[in-house]
Fold:
Amino acid sequence: MNSGTGCVTSRDLEFTVPQMHAMANDVVARCIAHIAALPQQPPHGVHDAEALCRRLREPLPAAGTALTPLLDDLFERCIPQSFNTASPGYLAYIPGGGLFPAALADFIADTTNRYTGIWQAAPALVQLEANALEWLREWMGFPTGTRGLFTTGGSMATFNAVLCARERHLGPDIRRGVLYTSDQAHHCVIKSAKLAGIMPDRVRAVACDDAFRLPVPALREAIARDRRDGLVPFMVVSNAGTTNTGAVDPLAAIADVCADESLWHHVDGAYGAFFQLCDDTRDVLAGLERADSLTLDPHKGMFMPYGTGALLVRDGAALRAAHEATADYLPEMPSAAEFYDPSQHGPDLSRGFPGLRMWLTMKLYGADAFRAAITEKRALALEAVARMARLPHVVIDAPPALSLFPFHLTWPGATLAQEDAATRALMAATSRRGRVMISGAVAGGRYVGRVCVLSFRTHARQIDQLVEDLGAAIDEVVAGVRG
Structure:
């Protein structure tokens, strides 16, 4: 405020056309250089993280800074200090590759800045998003009448699924409701249940079988026990590929249980559902298409950037009923039967255009390209497990149902504690070599190493490097633990 005139001092935040060209060219050039250099970058770049973060702390700047030094900081100091999930050698956790066209879509969405919370505000753009959800529905074998939602990831998709199941089967009496899952389920299940009002004491984590799958007899027993105790079983969450071991639950048998018991069946397909596209894994996922709802993570099996999740709900009316709301200032809703309205199928009213990255990428590549890429990841995982099984001291704990498998080290006379220590040491020693990164988990009462092949940049060369680096480290690691 200018105290002499009482007028507001104007500050123009717009850049000129030449300035925008220069800024965009600088950003795009650095991004492309980063992608081109990925094969030479280590998959794991975090070093002295605490000290780095302390150095990065700073007060709010009063004046602006030029773009070039900010990009220097990002690309030279901050971005390298991370798990390089876009690396072709990233075989840890669940890789997320980040297809370049999706980044272009985000740039378009952010610069045009269209509001898609309600259908009337951008009907053509919302229709493109609805098209992309419809393509996912077709791929997963869900029926006409299914509705979906793009989310920030699998966790929010799971939350919305629990919400739908709660509304359908419990209504206002949610305290007696019980949800069932495997003890190998992703931790977002219990978190989502809690957010939806289903407290942890009403979530049953049924102990998995020897193949790390949810056992149907134990599930039936748990449901019967809770009914005898006056509780209300309402939902089962099964796994189409667990994070720890890649196991796929017996989806068809669980669907039968849910049909018999009138329960909502949700399938967590965040990691594995896109293997529906492969001929040799479709049978493994049999029953997925019978689910009441399905979590998808396109930032995994479709190689999208992080922040791309999706939910499909077989009865689209149930998804709408859980979220439907209006206000006097909003326009009249379109026909629910014909037109998709994002605000009536999810919790967000304020939203940009999250579906553009899916629509543009799927249009550019076509379904066959994704099918071929997923099939290659499956083949690479089978190659990796066959070659690793021939390495000394390696035990494969479960073959890859899809493209992820667990293993551990052993030797005559080894204790469980020694096996765990050696396997942990092997993970670290292999990743330190800087060509591939692998990670581990606790499953079946022991620590296991994990190999997950799912990056679109991972090819035969990275499997060669994995086997070479494991082989080079195993004897040293075992000798060190054995003493």
